[in-house]
Amino acid sequence: MDSRYHQWCSIKLRENLWFLEKPNVDFSGLTCPLPEDVHATGRFKSATYIERRRQRIINQTPELTEIEKEQIKQIYEERSRLNNDAGYILFHVDHKVPLSKGGLHHPSNLAILKASENIMKGARLMPR
Description:
Elements: H1 11-18, H2 35-38, H3 47-59, H4 66-86, E1 91-95, E2 110-114, H5 115-121
Antiparallel strand pairs: 1-2
C-alpha cells in the first residue's frame, strides 16, 4: 500500500486501511493524484523532512516524568478527537516556541491550534 498520504489521515482511517482484507469497491484503474496536484506548492513533506523533524523532536525532548508523558499523550489525543469530530484535519499540535528556534517538545510548550493558524504561524514566535 502506498503510505505517502498516511500522515494526512485520521488514526481511525489509517487503522481501517491497514486492516482492510479486500476492497469493498473496485478501485482498479483509479490512482491517487500526485501531492503537488492536490496541495499548495511546498505543502508535501518529503520523507527526508519527516525524518529530520522526528529526529529534532527526539533531540529536543527533555527527560520527561510519567505525568509529562501522559500530558503530551492527552494533548495529541485531544487534537485527534477534535479532528475526528470535525471530519477533517482542522487542528494541529503547535510548539509555542518552535523546535527550529530551540523550543522543547514538552507539554508546557505545546498547544492545540487551528491548522490554518498554525500554518500561518510557521516557525515564528507568536506574542503571548
